[in-house]
TrEMBL record:
Domain Plastocyanin-like: residue ranges: 110-217, 533-685
Protein name per UniProt: ferroxidase
Catalytic class of the enzyme: oxidoreductase
Family (UniProt): Belongs to the multicopper oxidase family.
Length: 743
């Protein structure tokens, strides 16, 4: 009996099988997930009770299109070209099967019809992964999509010595084809709020993303109610349509019309602006939070949808949202409806000293722990996640913003520090929230915005990324101490991002190699960056090479030449993400704003276009000026995604201790998709990692089969071949000992 008990204890904790909800956190040392990646459509009802007297068997899992009937105040079910009344649907017990009694199985998103999406086990966003630091995480993915390939990138996980599981298509792996399977294996080595998402074309915009939370041991004892919150900007059209409706590709009408249908590539007068800078070429339809939202029509009426409301205990006094911006293009503003303060306590997985403000700017790809007080005398509080812009159109006139409410209320049945969700039907009645104004009647506003890439927005002051400080209580959690500002870097790399030739870095649009870097950088077939391309721009596989162990400082700008005023509306912000690393952000500089209007009108004086080139493919820093204004603080925070201000810059540094070819790109999907990326090659001259080993189970593409070149697999990767009965070596040894002792 003891032996069998130990064998049972030694198994991995399986959180969910294919098509099951993955609802619980994993508390074991080995955590396994089985995920089905599939296409679904919005505004559908998933049921097993609709099938009697039909051509398919009763009990089959089916999705049925539904449409809201305003007259009946209920749904009509659309099936096989026949409009079927909901009262005709009878379950096996003879009861009417009403979709409104089955909110969990309504896939509505923002209430718009028949939008193609990608789900994991039927969910958008995908299942939350919540594990303890140090756990071995195994994620078995099976595709039932008919056409599309995909990969999953584990955003924020360093993947130290585990490069081949990073999930970047055509960099560290071939895409996983339709009707194929693969197992990702990784160690939960760095704690905090992270996430995962598709890293294949702009597929992330279809909902293939989710939260990845890694908990420290002492977090179990923290007396706070917390939950993951995944927010995203959302469109009524899928990624294929958005790609075909490329707003950066002009027709032969001199830019007056965009190609494609023009539904989402709207006129400049309708686009969102902040500090006079255009935020995106797209116009956003909705904001969704944890897969729930509500589209608002031009008449200020909402589509029918389903929202999540959150229940907390009667004794809750503070709530923490582990917030992830998993979106496409637009930054998002998080605020409280009643104006109460919000506090940031962590950025990109790392604890920071708390900073309090009236609203929080979130760039695409960033993660923030946001806390809000919930006084005991209050029964409910309401937050808003909305599109972040100061106004709309060239004059920045105010316009209603897409938003979603996030509501918390008290419930005596909820345990202390627990948060339960409740699905509620959101009917089409108008319920417009009072807009957030960036301007006040007073000469000086007391409102503060947190994490924004500007000195001020409207009349409000900003606390930027360099105004935050690391929390010294958690310094021991760093595997290696962050680089000091006093150390002289071994290498300084200038990077400029703009649209002079299209979305590019240093005037070069990234072209992926024909295959991932299975054979190393030198032996992989790729498009070389020629001298002519470097001078005038072009498409090539731009690689920045550094050596393992070097201290590298990046100086990243988003600069345009001032004389190139024809490109004035292409100035914008960029969210830079680096795979495999976190970095210390030491400096930030902003474009020069007009003192009257607040609009950015000039490039920051620290930077200029190299050789005074009109395209400004490359930028140059004034080293002395930068040195004079540089802070000597040594408690700057670490990030893996940072927003580069329009016509400004950020400076960050890292220790190149993780060999591999790591994507370094803008996290706005269309910027990245069209070429705003480079590859950072951290070269290991001693052990040739990661190219000295390769998992045999990697997907194949073109004429390359990883199994033919796999050698010297690392221990963490050998777990790819394990099944659901993962054994702990210690428990296995103890089992063998007891077996011999007893028998």
């Amino acid at each position: 009996m003891i032996v069998f008990l130990l064998l049972a204890l030694a198994q991995a904790e399986v959180i969910c099988d294919y098509d099951e909800p993955c609802l619980k956190a994993c508390t074991d040392t080995v955590c396994e997930y089985y995920w089905n990646i599939e296409n679904r459509f919005s505004q559908t009802w998933r049921t097993t009770d609709f099938g009697e007297n039909r051509s398919y068997p009763k009990g089959a899992l089916r999705d049925f299109p539904i449409q809201w009937n305003k007259t009946k105040n209920n749904f009509d079910i659309i099936q096989e070209g026949i409009n079927v009344d909901v009262n005709e649907v009878i379950d096996e017990n003879g009861n009417v099967r009403d979709p409104l009694d089955d909110l969990e199985n309504l896939l509505l998103l923002d209430g718009q019809r028949m939008r193609k999406v990608i789900t994991i086990n039927g969910q958008i966003p995908g299942p939350n992964i919540i594990v303890n630091k140090g756990a071995l995480v195994k994620i078995h993915v099976k595709s039932t999509m008919h056409e599309e390939s995909f990969t999953l990138h584990w955003h924020g996980l360093h993947q130290l010595d585990n490069y081949w599981n990073d999930g970047a298509a055509m960099v560290s792996q071939c895409p996983i084809d339709a009707h194929n399977e693969f197992t990702y294996v990784m160690r939960a080595e760095n704690s905090g709020t992270h996430w995962y998402h598709s890293h294949y074309i702009i597929q992330r915009a279809d909902g293939l993303h989710g939260a990845f939370i890694i908990l420290e041991e002492d977090e179990k004892d923290e007396e706070i109610s917390w939950m993951p919150l995944v927010v995203t900007d959302w469109w009524n059209t899928d990624s294929t349509f958005l790609a075909g409706n490329d707003p950066y590709r002009y027709g032969n009408t001199l830019g007056k019309r965009m190609t494609g249908s023009g539904l989402k590539a709207c006129r400049t007068d309708e686009k969102s602006f902040m500090t006079g800078v255009k935020m995106s070429t797209f116009c956003v339809d909705s904001i969704v939070a944890n897969g729930r939202g509500q589209y608002r029509t031009n008449e200020d009426e909402f589509e029918f949808s389903v929202l999540e409301e959150y229940r907390v205990s009667k004794t809750t006094t503070r709530i923490q949202l582990k917030t992830i911006h998993a979106g496409f293009e637009h930054p998002i503003l998080v605020r409280a409806v009643d104006g109460r303060k919000l506090t940031i306590t962590a950025q990109d997985g790392r604890r920071v000293l708390p900073e309090e403000g009236d609203g929080i700017f979130m760039g695409v790809g960033e993660t923030l722990n946001i806390e809000v007080d919930f006084p005991l005398e209050e029964e409910w509080i309401e937050l808003i996640a909305e599109v972040m812009f100061e106004g709309i159109g060239k004059k920045s006139e105010y316009h209603e913003k897409p938003y979603v409410k996030i509501t918390f209320s008290r419930d005596a049945s909820v345990s202390q520090f627990e948060i339960k969700k409740q699905l509620v039907a959101a009917y089409p009645e108008s319920n417009v929230v009072e807009p957030f104004s960036f301007h006040t009647e007073n000469e000086v506003s007391e409102k503060v915005l947190l994490n924004c890439p500007a000195k001020t927005i409207g009349d409000m002051s900003c606390k930027t990324v360099v105004d935050f400080k690391r929390d010294p209580k958690y310094e021991s959690r760093f595997a290696n101490p962050p680089p000091s500002i006093e150390e002289k870097p071994d290498r300084v790399i200038d990077v400029n991002m703009n649209f002079a030739i299209g979305p590019a870095i240093n005037g070069l649009e990234f072209k992926y190699p024909e295959t991932p870097f299975f054979f190393g950088v030198e032996n992989t077939e790729k498009t070389q960056c020629t001298a002519a391309m470097i001078a005038d721009g072009g498409h090539c596989t731009q690689i920045i090479e550094v050596k393992k162990g070097e201290l590298v400082e990046f100086r990243v700008t988003a600069a345009e030449h001032l004389e190139n005023m024809a490109r004035r509306w292409q100035w914008t912000y960029h969210g830079i993400h680096l795979h495999g690393y976190e970095f210390v952000v030491t400096d930030i500089g902003f474009g020069v704003a007009n003192q009257t209007t607040g609009f950015i009108e000039q490039i920051n004086p620290v930077i200029h276009c190299k050789d005074d080139q009109i395209k400004c493919n490359r930028a140059k820093f004034d080293d002395q000026m930068l040195e004079n204004i540089r802070s000597d603080r040594d408690d700057h925070i670490l990030k893996n995604t940072v927003i580069v201000p329009a016509m400004g810059y950020v400076v960050f540094r890292l220790r190149a201790n993780n060999p591999g070819v790591w994507p370094f790109h803008c996290h706005q999907l269309f910027h990245n998709y069209e070429g705003m990326a480079v590859a950072l090659f951290v070269k290991d001259e001693e052990e040739n990692k990661p190219f000295s080993y390769l998992p045999k189970e990697m997907p194949r593409c073109h004429n390359y089969h990883p199994k033919d070149i796999a050698i010297n697999e690392e221990p963490i990767l050998r777990t790819n071949s394990m099944n659901k009965t993962q054994f702990s070596p210690l428990l296995f040894a103890l089992t063998v000992f007891l077996f011999h002792y007893i028998y």
